[in-house]
Amino acid sequence: MSASVAVYRNIYTEDRFRQSYGTEDKPRGGGQRFREKIAERCRCSRAACLHLLRERVPIFNWLPKYRLKKWILGDTIAGLTVGILHIPQGMAFALLTSVAPIYGLYTSFFPVVLYMLFGTGRHVSTGTFAVVSLMTGSVVEQLVPTPLQLNSSSPEAADFEAQRIGVASAVALLSGIMMLCMFGLQLGFLSTYLSEPIVKAFTSAAAFHVTISQLQSMLGLRLPRHTGPFSLFKTLASVIENLPHTNMAELLTSLVCLAILVPVKEVNMRFRQHLRTPIPVEILTVIIATGVAYASSLDSNYDVQIVGHIPAGFPSPRMPSLHKLPEVAGDTVAITFVGYAVSVSLAMIYADKHGYSIQPNQELLAHGISNTVSSLFTCFPSSATLATTNILESSGGFTQLSGLFTSLVVLIVLLLIGPLFYFLPKAVLACINVTSLRQMFLQFQDLPDLWRVSKIDFVVWLVTWLSVVVLNVDMGLAIGVVFSMMTVICRTQRAGCSVLGRASNTEIYRPLENHNKCYEVPGVKILTYNGPIYYGNRSFFREDMSRLLGLTPERIRSREKARKALEKREREAVNTVERGVANTSFSSENEFFKSETAESEVQAVLMDCSSVIFVDVAGARLFIQMCIECQKVGVCIYLANCNESVLKILTSSGLMNYMNPQHIFVTVHDAVMYIQQQKEQTPENTTTVWV
């Protein structure tokens, strides 16, 4: 099937098009409009209050629309399944945070309830997250290091645990306050600076940190925890050095747990389409291991480290260690960004999958309230979690109501069952930690596709991963973000300038380097720049323009000298004519000069600005400078496809003092038609375009 397009219209400059189709300029009255907006926002009414309530507390929006018969079963099963998983993972991730396991159960309860009230992600499961727990644990270890000789039953041990959870709660409080401040400033967009390659590389590298940090618990070694740069290698060296002191009972316990956890998790993953709910292998392992440890007295007979006393009941409110806030502020910034970025990324993934939308700024409010309130109940920082969110969605969860059933399971454990885990070996929790990282390790499978699609993103992934592994989690993340932003800056700096050619009998113009059947319009050099023009790339832009136009200093001087000589001869010719003598030799020489210029030189430069998204003051001044240089060599400058913001900056910078405003056109083809008609200068010429 073939089709054709025929267009016959006027040539449009920007001014002419604006006069014909533009919106009439209205009086601004900015101050009045601002006052009206403030008054509208501050106006109180019943409808406005209800709208604000539904917007800021989303449960009042989705709960009245809840489809009880259709959704309640899926939410119940998914919530109970995730709740059962929260129990072992909460205790296990508490070890990563360097606090007692009971605080992991608290962190698996309060944030879940609060997110159910304020969150917008229907399939998001919040609670303890390995990466956030590891980063918080590093802060705790720096401020409250573990003494090598500490009797777990002594009063000093209780005071030591209180200090540690005080620091962890302070991090949670400050993280929540930061999120609330970001919500107030509507800074939800900041999560976009953590691109997908950065998040995946960061979590994958952090999984190595988690695994190495758990080796000492799996081997029964009592070693100090290393923090700071090269902590992974320091920990690994310390473990290897102390291998002769391995507790064989704990090593055997770890091997048995891994032999159970790894295959069953693989079955859950491979057959998740056929399983109504995944096999709760973690809680089963915890129950069996606790029973075996109690029956065999592993703690007394084989010196196996156990969880110890887990108090029953609800935690009483307690203020975090507020005097530690200045010391944890720097690390908390990284923890806040990581927790929020992972949470929003997960929420968006499942929102896109199920056809609904989330509000990033409302997510800031939800996680901010969760962390702030939870910190008052001895919780450490929380966020959305990869494993439980995946299980919640695959188990058939529909809405945030599944969080109610999840919290009920954890609440029952807190009130009744918690003390029964007294004899649970810590090696079992370490194994649960390691096996929960399966998804993070599998992210290496994305590398071949990433290399094929974008080599720059591949390098960003690699730099972030190496930085996190070699240096540290927070420092590596900072390096990854900075490097990623540098790649964006470098790409805008080296955007590249191309010469456009016209496809025969069309108004289509394409780069000649990729379309060799297009041809250059005689006497017109059409250029396009594929990026912004700002202070960072103005030198590269000038270099490309000078190369393509041949604007070398020598050529500019010679052409300007020839132009001045020509003007001088013209004045002499006028004087000669006035005296009544005709200088025929000059006339022929002048015509020869003009014809030579017309045939061998470019008389017009047309700049296609369709890809120039913005121009700053430095870029505008460069435009003016290029315009002056082109005028010196007798070349006219034309612009086409300028967006409103670019055109406004160029005009405000004084470009129109050096350029005819009628040389700015709506499209490239309009400009080309105008230039060709000006060259022909026939009486019957009309300002029309025929394609």
From TrEMBL:
InterPro entries: SLC26A/SulP_dom (IPR011547), SLC26A/SulP_fam (IPR001902), STAS_dom (IPR002645), STAS_dom_sf (IPR036513). One of its GO terms (biological process) is transmembrane transport. Gene3D superfamilies: STAS domain. Residues 514-675 form the STAS domain. The chain crosses the membrane at residues 71-87, 93-117, 124-145, 165-189, 328-351, 371-392, 404-424, 458-484. Signal peptide: none annotated. Its main location: membrane. It is found in: Membrane. This is Solute carrier family 26 member 10. It comes from Hucho hucho (huchen).
